[in-house]
Amino acid sequence: MIHLYLSWNALSLLAVFAQGTSLEKTLLPLILDILAITFFLIGVTAILWARRTTRGTSLINRPESGGHVIGQSMVMLSVCWLLLVCIGISLFPTPAHPVQSRKPVPTNDSQSNLVTTTPTQLKLLNRGELTIGIEPVIPLQAYSDNSATDVYTGFDIELIKAIALKINLKPTFKPIPGTNPLNLINGMNGPGQQQFDIAISGLKITDDLKQQVDFVPYLNVGETLLVLKSEHKQITMSNMDDLCNLPTQGIQTLAVQIGTVAQTDLQNVLSSCKSTQSTIHVTPKQEVKDIIDLLNTKQVNAIFQDATITDYYTHNEQFKGKYAMAGLPVNQQNEGIALRKDNSPLRDAIQTAFATLQRDGTYKNLIDKWNFVSNEQLTPAERS
User: Fold this and answer.
1) CATH fold for domain 222-333
2) By CB neighbour count within 10 A (0-12 exposed, 13-18 middle, 19+ buried), where does 222 fall?
3) Whole-angstrom distance, CA of residue 256 vs CA of residue 267
4) Of 12, 243, 336, 337, which residue is 20 to 30 A from 183 by alpha carbon distance?
């Protein structure tokens, strides 16, 4: 019986490890089992010792010694326990094939991670943390809260926080000055001087950047003209080539932010214009607030910039309808979360988490909250 009992215990422990069950859940019954066997052995020893000390005494006059009584009690308790175990074996036999998958079964998209990669499998600068490089100067996407310079807000910030939560990581933000995407790429990809695990701040997915890093797309952003509503004219702009015709529509001066993809795109188009290149004057400035000042003081007719920034100025109540978009968004491009090419487990985990946020409505809620009204929302088919 003891042999059968020990065999059953061994199979139970094997099933525990195979199924990924925590060992703590089996420690108490295991301890009780060991105690039962110990009681049995001590009880038998006590009975034998009591009989030995009363050897030669007749059965009628033989007294019941304390050791004899204790031994009998311990033997009876252990035998009862072993009988219960044997009955349990017959009623609840060990499965023939106890090995099962260790992957948890998700119960709800909004509550479960749905990311099979564990944090220990990811290549991270700091264990349990997702260190995120940002340029906190982009209205609506990533910028400093007015109350504190180290508190960041915006669509990108809230999205990456939700993604980090899905993969059980604590988000930590590391700001980088300027608006040049190469600053973020170098801070993440620089040999021997990696500063963060990923980067996010309106990074356009260009062919040049794709040679250096991997991306997880999350927005589809065009480029637009922002004008003063009081100076608003009916502008025809449905593609990049229409920029060449702006002087004929009353726009002869433009402002653009230095180091942005919008600046590069504008320069490329204007350099290809045959007759109007010299009639469009472009003023580059380092910060968004600087080019807004140029527009407010009417030193330029319009600003050429990402649609998300235009959405911010045209739909934010604090500006009270001061600005308007001229024409339509052009040159739609995906923006993405940048990662090192040697960290595919982290890329896959972020991609899976983002897909979950799309399915459970979190992504759409963030799109609506931050007033993205220029068709920036990325559909599931556009993720790849």
Assistant:
1) D-Maltodextrin-Binding Protein; domain 2 (3.40.190)
2) middle
3) 10
4) 243
